[in-house]
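Table S2 (continued). Query chain:
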Amino acid sequence: MVKGKKTFMRIRLLILGIVLGTGLLLSHCTSFMPAPEKTLPYEAIQSLYHQGEYQAMLDTVQALEPVFPGESLLYYYAGLGHLRLGDVHPALQSYRQASKLAANPHMDSLYSAILGQNTLELYHENSFQAANSLADSTLTVDKTNHDAYFVRYMIKGRNLLEKGSKWQIWDAIVAFGNAAQMHPDDPMPHYFMAKSYFKKDDKDFDNIIQEYEEALKRDPPADLVPQIKKDVSELRRRKKLYEDFWGK
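Corresponding output:
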C-alpha cells in the first residue's frame, strides 16, 4: 500500500513536471514569435488627399512616421501635404527624405507636377521672385518640368522687354519663343513676342501681326482681345501705307 502510494506520487510529480516544462517551453517560444505585422492605412491617406483634406492627411502621415520610419511613401505624402498647404521648404525636405529611402517614379511625377502647378500660380499672381525661386527648386526635383521652364523663360523675357535695351530685345524674343515651346497652347508668349518685335522695330509688320494672330488663336484673356484686334488693324493700315509709299 505504501509502495503503491509512492508510485502514485512519482507519477503525479512526473505529470506536473511535464506540464510545467511544456508551459515554460511554450512561453519561451511565444516570446520569440514575431509580433503581428502592422499595415499602413494607405487607402485612408489617399482618400484624405483626394478629398482635399490636406491638413488631416499631413497630421495622419506625421503620426505614422515614427512607427514606420523606413516607409518612403509616408514622406512623399507628407511632402504633398506640405506642398498643397503652401509650405514649400518642408515639402522639399520630405521629398528628399522619401527619395533617400526609395525611388518611386509615380510619386516623383506627381510631386513634380504639383510643384510646377504652384510655380505657375505664383507667376500668374505676378510674384515673379517667388515663382523664379520655386522654378529653380522644381528643376532640382525634375529637370524636365515644362511648367518651371515656362515660368523661367517668361520672367526673363518680360524683364528684358520692360528694362532691357533695344539690343536686348532679341534675347526677350528668344526667351518668349522658348516659353512657347514649353506651353504650345498658351497665348501669352506670342502676345509678348509681338510686343517685343514692336519695341525692336515698329515697322516689322509681318512678325508683329503674325505673333498677335498666334495669340488670338490660343484664346487669350478676354480683356486683351479688343486691344490685340485694334493693334492688328492699325498695323495692317500702317503696313499698307508704308508699302504704297515705297511701292512695295
